[in-house]
Amino acid sequence: MQYFLGIDIGTYESKGVLTDKEGNIIASATHPHKMLLPQPGWAEHRPEEDWWNDFVKITKKILKASKINPSDISCIATSAIGPCMLPVSYEGDPLMNAVLYGVDTRAENEIRELNEEVGEEKILQNCGNALTSQSVGPKILWLKKNCPEIFKRAGKILSSTSFLVQKLTGEGVIDHYTAANFTPLYDIKNLKWTDALTKNIIEIERLPKLMWTTEIAGYVSKAASKETGLATGIPVTVGTIDAAAEAISVGVCSAGDMMMMYGSTIFTIQVTNEKIIDGRLWCAPWLFKDLHGSMAGLATSGTLTHWFRDNFAKEIPKDKAFEILAAEAAQSPPGSKGLIVLPYFSGERTPIHDPKARGTILGLDLTHNRGDIFRAFLEGIAMGTAQVFETYEAIGQNPKKIMAVGGGTKNNIWMQATSDFSKIDQVISEKSTGASYGNAFLAALAVGAVSQSDIIRWNPELSKIKTQHSALHAEKNKLFRQLYESSKEIAHAVADST
After folding, report:
1. At CA 56, angle to CA 51 and CA 60, rounded to 5?
2. In 458-497, at which residue ranges do the beta strands (DSSP E only) sit?
3. 83 prior amide bond cis, ω within 30
């Protein structure tokens, strides 16, 4: 019997599944952790405690629950939040907490510096991506300038998945999809590291080896076997970022397919036949050769709902809080009784790329209650998402099919608001397990146990969310944009003062 292990490290929780060749889930496990916010604009994880410890605990739980012989696992694939920036020693040990993806905006000055040195258009055309808070290159430069001793000791700069694979196999590798986020260090035309645009960040020899997602990076080492209970010698794939694995899990296979991930952030991936280079979006090689990904992402989505729960629903047990908050929001009509929320609590990523944007609640009066406000938060995220779809429409890249996935798919108010404000229909697949399930499929694909099209059989379509766009949604979208533009100068001043 062949089994496949997929594990994903998320912003707040890690998940793992064990499947058979037919896609049946044999066992699963989760483990929570926290996102550290040491100061405004910073977001971090502890790589050993939050990433590797989660991997070990989940693996042990799965092996115990499944009762399989570990040697029957044919392949392992991992994913994790990304892109992250983690310097490790020449021995592979973390030298600091990992700097997270676009929610961490500490490298704002370095972005400005690199744009002035190289030129924004030159960066965009050579790398496929403008410099934003999502870019790893400026964060490495931040490390070099602000933590010179750590930078000097760093043998490699890894991302989250790279770190996990190194712990498992001893190999420092990265897939092309993740590497494209290392702007301006990745040449998207020639699919290689480059220092041609600037030599002021880091020597490219200190970056991980480039490979494709489903290539075998190495094999479970004796040290990793001892910690995890896995058998030595199991093949381990290069892996990828969680969002890409999530897209695979719901059948994003062909050009025109799009994933809408409702997680700690809203993240979309559309598979295309050609590179889509637009400064408002992100571009990367897809997981497989000759296909490309066009991506967009908000800065705070599920993270914002967690913040709301933790601050305004303290009296509700956490395991019941979202269910109760959603029920309260359902009592508020579409439009949230006139409330408008700008969900920019950690700045914003696509399409406005404004790290100094700030959260706003407008329209409050004494008649509003918690349900109205929570609904307004969900609708604010939905209106931010609508801007993303307008960007795709503006460049002639409307998706043919949109597959929704992630924990947020359990929130009907959020799902429907997204369809209504964005004027889109969404497909929900039978299994909503997410990235860990996608990883299990990628592991099976890596060793030839399945073909790419088999994911439709593994995870068939379950239901659809149909848009109910109306004049109310159009008007609120308009006011949402106006509110941002009219308050932007004030928000930036507030950001500069903190």
Report:
1. 150
2. 461-465
3. yes
Q: Which residue has the tokens 């972005």?
A: 111
Tell me, what's the pLDDT at 404? 96
Two structure tokens written together for 249: 């899990």
Q: Quote the tokens at residue 480.
A: 């949402």
Query: C-alpha angle with apex 245: 243 to 247, nearest 5 degrees?
Result: 70
CA distances from 275 to 129, 243, 253, 467 (A): 11, 19, 16, 29
Cα radius of gyration (the chain): 22
387 three-state secondary structure: helix
The predicted-structure confidence for 418-451, as pLDDT tens digits, reads as follows: 999 999 999 999 998 899 999 999 999 999 999 9
Which tokens sit at 427?
Answer: 């497909």
pTM of the model: 0.88
Q: Which domains does the chain possess?
A: 3-243 (3.30.420.40), 251-433+468-498 (3.30.420.40)
Q: Which two tokens stand for residue 478?
A: 């308009």
CA atoms within 13 A on the CB side of 407: 17
